[in-house]
């Protein structure tokens, strides 16, 4: 293991029982892999080096019981430093620490702690107190653990409150979303109903307009027909048939019957019957009379001309 890197020199040569002394090695980083290969090294001394920070995998060295990191330049500890649950003795004297990670509260087996000569937060410095003797260092471990547990509890409560607030916010958003969707459905339903009502009114208006047009057309037709009927010439009053027309019709019917009888007696075999003989005789007499009457008229007309 060379100076500065911790590589090249076997750590087994430094191991004395369960103690591994890497102090005053001018280390800039911790050889975590080589340390993990030595689970028997439960006591680790890294004091008086040039360590500015610890790698995150340093917290995998859960076999450590006693750890000395004093007189380095550590500005902070890994966030999961609390994984070193078997740690009982921790020396952080003369570093540049201001706060401790919240996971520090998980070091339930910690019995001894030294935080002197660090630019600690005033509250943390007051809780830690001095570590001038064994009793004070033990009290520092107890008080710091209680303080970090309180911080952890408060942070857990804050996380719970934040989680609860996020859940309530999520529920509120869901409720608002449901309300929004319900409102949108109601608006769509209302718009649909309004559209139906609008179409119904349009239909009723069209129907009324059509009926009004039909009525107007009928009125115009009636007004057009009335002048035509009034422009007709007055019809002469119809008179009831007089009695003279009735007599004339009877005479014509009688004449027709006589002509039919005469034709039957002249043209058929009935002419030898007694009735037809009488009819034919009467017909010849009438004809002779008419001829005589015509001859007389001619004579009178001749005399008048003379």
Automatic annotation (TrEMBL):
Biased composition range(s): Basic and acidic residues: 156-223
Keyword terms of this UniProt record: Coiled coil, Endoplasmic reticulum, Leucine-rich repeat, Membrane, Microsome, Nucleus, Repeat, Signal-anchor, Transmembrane, Transmembrane helix
Pfam families hit by this protein: LRR_1 (PF00560), LRR_8 (PF13855)
PROSITE patterns xref list: LRR (PS51450)
InterPro entries in UniProt: Leu-rich_rpt, Leu-rich_rpt_typical-subtyp, LRR_dom_sf, LRR_domain-containing
Membrane topology summary: Single-pass type II membrane protein
Cited SUPFAM superfamilies: L domain-like
Primary localization: endoplasmic reticulum
Region described as Disordered: 151-242
UniProt key word GTP-binding: no
GO cellular component: endoplasmic reticulum membrane; nuclear envelope
Transmembrane segments: none
Location of this chain's protein in the cell: Endoplasmic reticulum membrane; Microsome membrane; Nucleus envelope
PANTHER family, A to Z: LEUCINE-RICH REPEAT-CONTAINING PROTEIN 18-LIKE, PTHR48051
Protein name (record): Leucine-rich repeat-containing protein 59
Organism: Agelaius phoeniceus (Red-winged blackbird)
């Amino acid at each position: 293991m060379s100076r500065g890197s911790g590589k090249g020199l076997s750590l087994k040569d430094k191991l004395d029982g369960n103690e591994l002394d890497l102090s005053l090695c001018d280390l800039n980083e911790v050889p975590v892999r080589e340390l993990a290969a030595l689970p028997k090294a439960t006591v680790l001394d890294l004091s008086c080096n040039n360590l500015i920070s610890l790698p995150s995998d340093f917290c995998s060295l859960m076999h450590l019981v006693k750890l000395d990191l004093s007189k380095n330049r550590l500005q902070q500890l890994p966030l999961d430093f609390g994984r070193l649950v078997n740690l009982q003795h921790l020396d952080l004297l003369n570093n540049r620490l201001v706060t401790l990670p919240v996971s520090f509260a998980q070091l339930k087996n910690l019995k001894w702690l030294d935080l002197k000569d660090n630019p600690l937060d005033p509250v943390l410095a007051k809780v830690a107190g001095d570590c001038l003797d064994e009793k004070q260092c033990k009290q520092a471990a107890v008080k710091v653990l209680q303080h970090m547990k309180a911080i952890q509890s408060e942070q857990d409560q804050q996380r719970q409150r934040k989680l609860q607030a996020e859940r309530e916010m999520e529920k509120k958003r869901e409720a608002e979303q449901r309300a929004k969707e319900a409102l949108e459905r109601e608006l769509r339903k209302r718009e649909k109903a309004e559209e139906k009502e609008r179409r119904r009114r349009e239909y009723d208006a069209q129907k009324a307009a059509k009926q009004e047009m039909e009525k107007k057309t009928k009125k115009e037709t009636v007004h057009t027909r009335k002048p035509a009927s009034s422009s007709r010439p007055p019809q002469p009053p119809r008179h009831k048939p007089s009695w003279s027309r009735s007599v004339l019709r009877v005479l014509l019917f009688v004449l027709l019957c006589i002509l039919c009888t005469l034709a039957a007696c002249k043209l058929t075999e009935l002419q030898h019957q007694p009735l037809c003989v009488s009819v034919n005789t009467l017909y010849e007499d009438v004809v002779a009379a008419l001829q005589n009457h015509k001859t007389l008229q001619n004579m009178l007309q001749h005399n008048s001309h003379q």
